[in-house]
Specification:
The structure holds two protein chains of two kinds. Chain A has two domains: about 1-30; about 40-140, Cytochrome Bc1 Complex, Chain D, domain 2, CATH 1.10.760. Chain A contains six helices and two strands; from the N terminus they run ααααββαα. Chain A has helices at about 1-30, 40-50, 50-55, 80-90, 115-125, 135-140; strands at about 95, 100. In chain A, strands 1-2 form a two-stranded antiparallel ribbon. Chain A starts with a helix and ends with a helix. Chain B is an alpha+beta fold. In chain B, α3 runs parallel beside α6. Chain B has helices at about 1-25, 55-60, 80-90, 110-120, 135-145, 185-200, and strands spanning about 40, 45-50, 55, 65-70, 100-105, 130, 150, 160, 165-170, 175-180. The chains are: A mainly alpha, B alpha+beta. The interface between A and B is medium-sized, with 14 and 20 residues.
Chain lengths: ~140, ~200
């Protein structure tokens, strides 16, 4: 009887427990959607200020002038290149998703490593793999 | 009674005809006379476009044209201006009476080859949208002549300060409007106004 009561109590408590677990995960960032991640708003604001005028608010790119970011290999297979590209810019032809682009991308030498991290985090959470993280400061030390 | 009915029918027909005319004309009763003359483009110029062709006032003779100042490596407003100018291009590309004329303010970097590459990226036709380069002091002087700001300024992103305006110039080389080239609604107005200027002879 006692054990039955315990089971019943446990059954009654289960939804509450689940809620508490979800809340704890949410608070720790484990299940947080992109918009509620710490720094996500700052990342979005930095992206809007420094990136969106060329690459588009939705990362769609523009004609054969500015490459798209949304769905691009840059955010999946070549993520480690991004810190240096954002800091120092890019020259010469690149191929993004089978299309050639050949404009000068100006660098952003005034952006701090933390700001670059926030921008990359925003782009990943919006168009890439949000669970993948890179050490931006480390990659910035190895720019060529 | 029959006569009254005839008058009624005729009046109704007239009213319908007037309404049809208003409908077909889009109820746009505007005229280019409503646009004040804001300046005269009297200064001579001699630039080179993305196809290495000389661009002088002869190229814009008897044309309505839109002009602006930009540079290809500009990290700030230029990409937005270029997107908006591309909208204007798409609206006028089949209109033989209208041209676009964009000047680079960074001729040291924006050579003919660089402008050609930029034009190819945009996918534009040179005869409709000239991207021109030339001596920087001449380009700055031309900007001033259009009453637009363009200057070197190291603190600014990309090293230049310049206006984001698009200027509408009529067939008589008179300035008839300034439009914020970073504002899609202002550019909507420019596209409407261009159609008006293009149609009026």
């Amino acid at each position: 009887m006692t054990s039955l009561c315990s089971v019943n109590r446990a059954r009654r408590a289960a939804p509450l427990l689940s809620l508490l677990v979800v809340a704890a995960l949410w608070a720790s960032g484990g299940l947080a959607p992109a918009e509620t991640r710490p720094g996500a708003a700052a990342g979005k604001a930095l992206f809007t200020e420094h990136c969106s005028s060329c690459h588009g608010v939705a990362g769609e790119g523009f004609r054969s002038l500015y490459p798209p970011l949304a769905g691009s290999r840059l955010l999946t297979d070549e993520l480690e290149r991004l810190p240096c590209i954002i800091r120092h810019g890019l020259r010469g032809e690149i191929v993004v998703d089978g299309r050639a682009f050949n404009q000068v991308m100006p660098g952003n030498p005034r952006l701090s490593a933390d700001d670059i991290s926030r921008i990359i985090s925003y782009m990943q959470s919006t168009w890439g793999d949000e669970n993948r993280e890179i050490e931006v400061k480390t990659w910035l030390r190895h720019c060529q | 009674m029959v006569r009254i009915n005839t008058i009624c029918v005729r009046s109704t027909g007239l009213l319908l005809a007037v309404l049809l005319c208003l409908y077909l004309s889009g109820c746009d009763s505007r005229s280019i006379d409503d646009f004040p003359v804001l300046g005269e483009v009297s200064r001579d110029f001699n630039f080179v476009n993305q196809d290495n062709e000389v661009v002088t006032p002869a190229v814009v003779q008897d044309k309505v044209y839109v002009t602006d100042f930009f540079f290809t490596t500009c990290p700030a407003i230029c990409p937005i201006m270029t997107r908006q100018m591309t909208r204007v291009y798409e609206a006028i590309k089949d209109d033989p009476g209208v041209l676009l004329l964009s000047h680079t303010i960074d001729p040291e970097h924006d050579t003919v080859e660089v402008l050609k590459n930029y034009a190819d990226g945009l996918g534009i036709e040179t005869a409709k949208w000239h991207l021109v380069t030339g001596p920087q002091d001449e380009i700055f002087a031309m900007a001033k002549h259009y009453m637009l700001a363009a200057m070197k300024y190291e603190e600014a992103p990309g090293g230049y300060l310049h206006s984001g305006s698009f200027v509408l110039v009529d067939r008589e080389r008179q300035i008839r409007g300034y439009y914020d080239g970073t504002d899609p609604e202002a550019v909507d107005r420019l596209i409407d106004d261009l159609a008006l200027f293009s149609e009026s002879r």
